[in-house]
Amino acid sequence: MNTDTRKPPIPLLGFAAWSGAGKTTLLTRLLPVLRARGLEVAMIKHAHHDFDVDKPGKDSFELRQAGAGQVLVASSRRFALMVENPPGEETDPVLSELVGRIDPHRADLILVEGFKREPIPKIEIHRPALGKPLLCTGDPHIVAVATDRPDAVPDGMHALPLDDVRLIAAFIGEYLGLRGLETET
């Protein structure tokens, strides 16, 4: 992990797909490979619906219900900051603001799940069997397509085998210039 206090911006790579294509499944298989190669990886995930990481009956939940706009829960293992948007001010999350909340001294790479319309480099996950069109044909920020059917990927676009996370990790390393990921180990 980079401990330089003057760390440059953290490389950012998105994963975009239609719902049900397997973004989270791919990422849960890819993350251990990236970690094994020495990278500290941060994740930002977009949720299209209301969600809560807290549970009724927990002190932090009760404090939020009582009106705390921000609650930071901390232990020796982790901490979580929950920020409530005021009623009537709920807006879609802004990726650049979320990236700014990531500690740059604890991340070598930020992977983004969702946010498919953001102008960031992305890998598309595509399964032709789902009957959805390729996103890469209308998004110049897609740099590769991870798919179970490479023949469905347009000429000139990198096609990555969806079931080969080591090859996907190597592509990420090469594309972003990350040491230790460029070649198969």
Structural class: alpha/beta
The helix-strand sequence is: EHEHEEHEEEEH
Number of alpha- plus pi-helical segments: 4
Quick one: biggest sheet? 6 strands, parallel
Which ranges are low-confidence, i.e. pLDDT below 50, for 5 or more consecutive residues?
none
CATH superfamily of the largest domain: P-loop containing nucleotide triphosphate hydrolases
CATH class of the largest domain: Alpha Beta
Distance between the termini: 19 Å
* Overall tally of domains: 2
Spatial order of the strands in the main sheet? 2-5-1-6-7-8
The name CATH uses for the topology of the largest domain is Rossmann fold
- Overall form: globular
CATH A-level architecture of the largest domain: 3-Layer(aba) Sandwich
* C-alpha-based Rg, rounded: 18 Å
Strand element count: 8
Query: Which range does the strand content fall in?
Result: 15-25%
Helix fraction bin? 10-25%
How does this model look, in words?
The chain has 185 residues and is an alpha/beta fold. Helices cover 21% and strands 22% of the residues. The chain has helices at residues 23-36, 59-65, 95-99, 165-176, and strands at 12-16, 41-45, 70-74, 79-83, 109-113, 122-126, 142-147, 158-161. A six-stranded parallel beta sheet has the order 2-5-1-6-7-8. It has a two-stranded antiparallel ribbon with strand order 3-4. A hairpin with a 4-residue loop joins strand 3 and strand 4 (79-83). The mean pLDDT is 90.
